[in-house]
From TrEMBL:
One of its GO terms (biological process) is signal transduction. It comes from Acanthosepion pharaonis. The chain crosses the membrane at residues 391-409, 421-444, 456-476, 483-503. Signal peptide: none annotated. This is TIR domain-containing protein.
Amino acid sequence: MLLMLIAYAGSYSIAIISVQKYCEDTFQLVSTNTTSAKKDLTTAVMSLRKLDSLLLSTTQGPCEIQLHLGDITKLSVEDKVDLILVSAFPCDYTVASQSLIKSLYVNLGLSVEKLSRDKYMDLRKYYSCWLSKTLPSHLPFARLACFERRGNYVNPIEQIKDMFRAFMPIFNSQDTTVITPLLGAGCQNFDEILVLNTIIEAACNWMRIGLPLRCLKIVLYDKGSSKITAINEKCIGEFAKLKKKWETPLVFQMLKKIHDVYISYSPNDADTAEMLVTHFVTSNKTIKVFSKRIQNKSSKVWPEHIMSAMSGCKRVLVILTSSYLETKDCLDEFNIALCHKRQAKELKLIPLYIQTLLNLPPVISNVQYMDCRLNEGETLSEKLLTVCEKLITELIIAVYIDFGLLVTIDLSMLIHIYLSIYLSIYLSIYLSIYLILSISTYLSILRTSIYLSKPILIYLSIYLSIYLSIYLNLFIISLSKPILIYLSIYLSIYLSKPIHYLSKPIHYL
């Protein structure tokens, strides 16, 4: 009995230990799976996710604006872009909390302060930004552009206008992809919806006139929570509305030429512009010149009035001075003229060098200019008169060339119409004759075939009768075989009975 109790207690202890070990293993497995699931969820949330995209049709090909959610530093190398945008206070690249500059430093080891010491291009004098040198290849961005505030922006419109104004010298006429946060929505506390609207409006308008911005990725920052914040939800809904608005096909109208020459100048150079207009009018009154000074409203991100006035012009003259480069509206006019030049080959952008300027951005210095700087004994009026006479000669020659092309096109159309009529008449006559000959030939062949058909029919009838008779005989023979077999079997059975009766007496004997 004692041995039985000891054995029972031992087995009970072993069972308890087994159950305990099983529970521990199960708990550890559940904990591991839970931790893994949380890690996967955190990774999914922290990664950069594409939410929506806006496709825009332009004369240069399709362009795209994408909306992303997450951390901009989580962009994969496979989706590498040409340029990332950051904003900062002038010469202040402090790694502040909740700033993109901090995220770049913590997550990617990229120091904006270090990049600022060795810039590729310093455009802060005219465009409020600087461009870094090429970044290491393992990063998902090729370069970094840092925009520094000039003064206090009361709204994001001026800051975003500065951003797109700087794209022309940064892109340098090369197709470019850009990724950006909602600039100013962080430390500057600008309204996110207003920033999103302004960026998309500016991007769509600039893309449509030829800015080489192939793809713009806008990132809504998310801290990594599993639930999308209320403000990001509003931005996603606003993007859907803007997508519906801008993806609607634009009905292009023929641009009617209103002016031949557009003069772009700063308010400080108004006297020089007036002198140019006077020389144009006195030299040739048929040349239409636009010289009205246009000032863009601070509440408008897109200078629509400049675009309308410049459309259809053959020449855009830029009175290039230091005042011109310091005037934002003038830089907008220069950029719009560059975009027009990419689409309209007949348009010429001609900077007039009135004074010597150093350290010009390549986007301006690379454009062929006319030197109007004064030598000893020369006056500005004489220089400008020479410019006007040369341009008027070019415009007149262009008009004659256009007229010659129109005359050539008209003559070619007349020749084409004459040839088409002549060929249609000739072909109709030829086809009529061909049809008549074809019908007569067909009838003669038909008569000949009827005449020749008589002996052929007799021969065919004899041949077919012989062939059919042979075939029928063979068929009858093939059918007769089972009948003969059946008859032979039947007769053998029938005749076997009397033979059987006759054989009985013989059997008894």
